[in-house]
Structures are given as C-alpha cells and as structure tokens.
C-alpha cells in the first residue's frame, strides 16, 4: 500500500466519518465494525494505522508489571488493545494518555476498559472502550502480543489496517482494501451531499434518493476478494 494511499485515506475518513466508511465497506461485502465500543473522551473523527496489542490474564500471585509499549508507537497511529472484553481491570490510563498526546497519536481503541477518565478528558485525547473502571491491569493481565492480528468482537484487526472512529464508534479497514474503500467513501459522500442539497431545496426525500441512485448503490454489495 503506497504511502499516498494511507495519507489520502486518513484525510478522507477523517472528513467523512464512520458512517460513510461503513457504507463504503458494505459495497465490498466487508464488515470491520468494532462492536460495543463507545467514545469515552475526545472529539471529532480520528483515523490512522492500527498499532495492535493483545493481553491475557495471569493467575493470582503471578507478577505482571505495567505493559511497556507506548514509546514505540509511531505518530498518527490508533492504538488497538485487545483485552478480550475484560471489564474487571484496565489497560489504559492518564500516564499513557500523556505520552500519547506528546507523541501525536490519533487515539486508542480498547476491547476492555480505561481508567483516569476525567484526566484523559482533560487532555482532550480520544479513547473508545467498553467503559471506565478504576482497577489497574497490573498483576491481573499482561501484554503478550505486539503488532500481531487481534480480535475485537467478530473483527480481526491487523497491524497497519486503518481505523476510523467518531461518536458512532470505531471501524477497521483492511490495509489491502484501503484504496478501494477510500474511493467508495468519496462516492457515498458525494451522493449523500447531492441528496441533502435537493432535500434542502424542497425535493421529497424519496425523489432525491431516486435521482441520485441512493438505494441502487446500497443494493450492489459484492464479496471482497
């Protein structure tokens, strides 16, 4: 995937948001939705390459120090943490957030919980998770994979897949399909913009959709190869 494809995709996804990205993926028969994750902090649409991390539980009494990874995450990345939906302990907090802000990361997506939420919000950093809880992950879970594929619900996220997230949640676009999805996002956004213009001018929504092929576009999904 050429660098220009990534830059264009990040810009396009950030401008048009997860709904347009989801519709664009539907046209290819792709899912990518990271279900049940909710925006906890930050604002606006964020997009960037996934930096993936996987955690596992440890037995009581087994030492498991805080995970060391944040200094290695490239600027512009979205940190994707697979904590297997665990809500009894956290894998992200205010200190990680401070470093993420300093390093220019786009945001963090967690299949689990964050803590220090008030401080994270004060820093203006974007986090999506299942919720917030105060219990530390230290000596409860440990980092076992870095930059390997991870499962978030029913979606597998690979390192370098592009993640887009906003107030509606988060979605991951496979790296192999970024160029095609980007083109579809522009098609979807252009069609919807035309519908909005006609509706604002008084055209019935049904007619505006017909004129601009709204339903015809959505009825033409195909299986991605």
Descriptive report:
Keywords: Magnesium, Metal-binding. The protein is an alpha/beta fold. It has a domain at 31-173: Glucose Oxidase, domain 1, CATH 3.50.30.40. It contains six helices and twelve strands. The strands form two sheets. Strands 1, 2, 3, 4, 5, 6, 7, 8, 11 and 12 form a ten-stranded mixed beta sheet that branches. A two-stranded antiparallel ribbon has the order 9-10. Strand 4, helix 2 (94-103) and strand 5 form a beta-alpha-beta unit. The chain is elongated, with a radius of gyration of 19 Å. The two termini are 16 Å apart.
Radius of gyration (CA) equals 19 Å
The largest sheet, given as strand count, sense and whether it forms a barrel, is: 10 strands, mixed
The end-to-end span amounts to 16 Å
By CATH, the architecture of one domain is named 3-Layer(bba) Sandwich
Mean pLDDT: 94
**Beta fraction of the residues?**
25-35%
Oligomer: single chain
- Poorly predicted runs of 5 or more residues: none
What's the shape? elongated
Helix and strand string, N-terminal first? HEEEEHEHEEEEEEEHHH
Number of DSSP strand runs: 12
* Total helical segments: 6
Q: Into which percent range does the helicity of residues fall? A: 25-40%
Remind me, CATH topology of one domain? Glucose Oxidase, domain 1
Q: CATH superfamily name of one domain?
A: Ribonuclease E inhibitor RraA/RraA-like
Pfam families: RraA-like
Subunit structure: Homotrimer.
Cofactor: a divalent metal cation; Mg(2+)
GO molecular function: 4-hydroxy-4-methyl-2-oxoglutarate aldolase activity; metal ion binding; oxaloacetate decarboxylase activity
